[in-house]
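Supplementary Note 3. Input sequence used for the single-chain structure prediction.
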Amino acid sequence: CLLSTFDHCLAGVDHVNLVIANKQPTPAWLTLEEAIAHSRAGASIWRWASTDDGVEPDVVLVGIGDVVTTEVMAAADILKREVPELRLRVVNVTDLLILEKESDHPHGLDQTLFDALFTADAPVIINFHGYASAVKQLLFGRNVGMRFTVNGYREEGTTTTPFDMLVRNGVSRYHLITQAIRAAAPRNPRVATRASERVRFYQYRLREFVREIRDTGRDPDEISDWRWSK
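The predicted structure, written as discrete structure tokens, is reproduced below.
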């Protein structure tokens, strides 16, 4: 996606581009051809990461930003393996302005395309690398009500590990997992029957990881060595 973005910026004229790129190793989720199509669209459903290609999901998980998208993918991976009855759709957004109404910005999606991406009624959980208020402002006028939950930067941080920073700002994979289970329970009776038990389990797991981080000063191997399941 970064290569596609740079190509677009270098080919443009009469405007200023600001590109901020991560220097750390990060997963490559798409081939170059897929990344070009994804960047041109501004957002797409990652069907290979979803349940049944993302058709009729109980909940939609959305990543906007590199590190928080990794947490979305980790949450999706765990849910697909450990809560298989929960139906997921995974969406990634590269152009924030697609969230605006078409009438407000030329990149904004009309309601039909917006609903095709995020569904017309399923709960949507967004993991955003910046302030949550920025996304909420873009969604203003979409009439999404309480259906959209936006996680973002809370100005919480200290000298700690990368995962602990995510935990402190409420954007970790385990925050997403518990949010997804809570959101899916009213729509899926099979999820509801074990919702309380599972939410408590993942909350406990997160507390154990945080305790280990504070004891050792490093992220647990289960976090730092995580890879997408094939």
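The chain is about 45% helix and 10% strand. The chain has a mean pLDDT of 94.
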